[in-house]
Amino acid sequence: MATETQTPAYVEEDVGNIALLEHVNVQIDDQALSTLFYIVGMGFTRDPEMMVGLENMWVNLGEQQFHLPTGKPQVLRGHVGIVTPSLDALAGRLEAVAPKLEGTKFAWSRSKDCIEALSPWGNRYRCYEPSPEFGPMRTGIPYVQFDVPRGAARGIAAFYDQIIGAPATVTSRDGSDAAEVSVAQYQKLIFRETDDVAAYDGHHIAVYVANFSRPYALLAERGLITEEPRNHQFRFVDIVDPATNQKLFSIEHEVRGLKHPLYRRPLVNRTVGQFPEPRRVDGRTVLGSVM
After folding, report:
1. Is 189 inside any structural domain?
2. Sign of the C-alpha dihedral, residues 61, 201, 216, 187?
3. Residue 120: how many CA atoms within 13 Å on its side-chain side?
4. CATH number where 73 lies
5. Would 37 be classed as within a structural domain?
6. Neighbours of 124 (CB within 10 A)
7. What is the rounded distance in angstroms from the CA atom of residue 246 to the CA atom of residue 224?
8. What are the φ and ψ backbone dihedral angles of 276, each rounded to 5 degrees?
9. Whose CA is closest to 210, among 18, 15, 9?
10. Range of the domain at 94
11. Is residue 249 included in any domain, yes or no?
12. Among 40, 45, 235, 246, which has the minimal tally of Cβ within 10 Å of its Cβ?
């Protein structure tokens, strides 16, 4: 049974300092495979305005993105939550691309209310249909969940609350604590304790903050800034316990102010039904027309 720190209803209206979780960045080593998985299989949209070469791919889903530069593959330590309009349609697309992704780490499975998909490089995505839990989101990233060491959750919650200015609570489920960090209206960062935490390989997330200067100053005092402010953003990697400065977890944050030129840039998204949906032909699932 889950237990949770109880907070008054009016406090839950606070959105805190993080205004938007915008993108997750993981390197991949094959742009063609990336197109098959993210665009054809998952049904997302390649951004038509930026990063249209072979060295990087920006992929739109609602108001969020994946950034997929070419390089040594990276795997996020945890999984990314996805809202998609139809699990049935997603299942058909994944079945259709499966033969072309053989020999990679690609896999997928379906439960009652979720599809879990592994990218060709092993990144995990849990996909859900829209629900009140995700507010008005029809397509997008409602949360990112990280695997963190035992005993780290409470310090991580304090870090986001005291240093970043984002409300955070600690929950417990099935014997594991988790720090849940509020992001804007209906997004979260979740840090769930586990016994098995992989080595960090450099992947990152990007967030926008309303108060830029205070987190920067508090992080700088602790020597945690890894990229000084430029183009309305700074970066840090290590999450520490505010009381002891002990490192708890590493995940690079690209922290952008609301004056950043890309803040709330309208993202092009395909509408379901405007691209070929999977269909059965000769006992197999295919996309598009068959010649």
Report:
1. yes
2. positive
3. 24
4. 3.10.180.10
5. yes
6. 16
7. 12
8. -60, 125
9. 18
10. 3-286
11. yes
12. 246
**Structural domain contains residue 291:** no
Instruction: Give which of 137, 14, 155 is closest to 85, Cα–Cα.
Output: 137
Contact 23, 206 (CB under 8 A): yes
Distance of CA 22 to the CA centre of its chain: 8
Number of domains in the chain: 1
CA distances in angstroms from 263 to 21, 120, 142, 257, listed in the order given: 11, 30, 18, 8
Q: Looking at the chain, how many residues does it have? A: 291
Q: Over the stretch 175-222, which tens digit does the pLDDT of each residue have?
A: 899 999 999 889 999 999 999 999 999 999 999 999 999 999 999 999
The model's pLDDT over 78-125, given as tens digits with 9 standing for 90+, comes to 999 999 999 999 999 999 999 999 999 999 999 989 999 999 999 999
The predicted-structure confidence for 215-246, as pLDDT tens digits, reads as follows 999 999 999 999 999 999 999 999 999 999 99
- Indicate the pTM of the whole model: 0.90
